[in-house]
Automatic annotation (TrEMBL):
This is CASP-like protein. The chain crosses the membrane at residues 30-49, 76-100, 107-134, 157-180. GO terms for cellular component: plasma membrane. Its main location: membrane. Belongs to the Casparian strip membrane proteins (CASP) family. It comes from Marchantia polymorpha (Common liverwort).
Length: 190
């Protein structure tokens, strides 16, 4: 039944090749990873330099000095760690993009890009939630807004969040390009 139409082939299907994707895909991946590096580094630097001190008046006529710093909140610490991991990874991945020789290595970088994108979106989601409460408050829970007092601090957090969203988009595009390149590469013989 080897030549008849409708027969079943009992042999296992094998990948066409073992080389990594080549061509424009590597240049696109390198560019997207470089953009991710630049934006995640910027978001990281914005966060670690974010601090503000203000003088608040007391009812008795004296004043108190209050400070807001990024490391006072676990959400902001997570954001700094996540963007730090991603910018270090994407620096290494951008450099390694042109030296990847096998599809297995390309697949590992695809998975690492995917994990990096998860880190970015989870950290920016938590930062946006905290920034929203800081800007708007929550009367049901008794949280007052603090951005009218710590305006520079809040604006820098929001800027870091917006830049992190751009970083996520670049890395997500790298994941999509990597997936398509690997799909085309690992086409199976029918």
């Amino acid at each position: 039944m080897a030549g008849s139409t409708g027969s079943f082939d009992t042999e296992a299907k094998k990948p066409v090749g073992v080389d990594a994707p080549t061509g424009h895909g590597k240049m696109i991946l390198a560019t997207l990873r470089a953009l991710t590096f630049a934006t995640s580094l910027t978001a990281f630097l914005l966060m670690i330099t974010d601090k503000q001190g203000v003088t608040l008046p007391n009812p008795d006529g004296t004043s108190t000095r209050a400070h807001a710093k990024w490391h006072y909140d676990g959400t902001f610490i997570y954001h700094v760690v996540a963007t730090g991991i991603v910018f270090i990874y994407t620096l290494a991945a951008t450099a390694a993009t042109f030296t990847i020789k096998t599809a297995n290595a390309a697949f590992v970088f695809f998975l690492l890009d995917l994990v990096g994108s998860y880190l970015l979106i989870s950290s920016v989601s938590s930062v946006v939630g905290v920034a929203y409460i800081a800007r708007e408050g929550n009367s049901h829970l008794g949280y007052g807004e603090v951005c009218s007092i710590f305006d520079k601090f809040c604006n820098q957090i929001i800027a870091s969040g917006v830049i992190t969203v751009a970083s996520f988009v670049f890395l997500l595009l790298a994941v999509i390009v990597g997936a398509f390149k690997l799909m085309k590469h690992w086409a199976y013989v029918s």
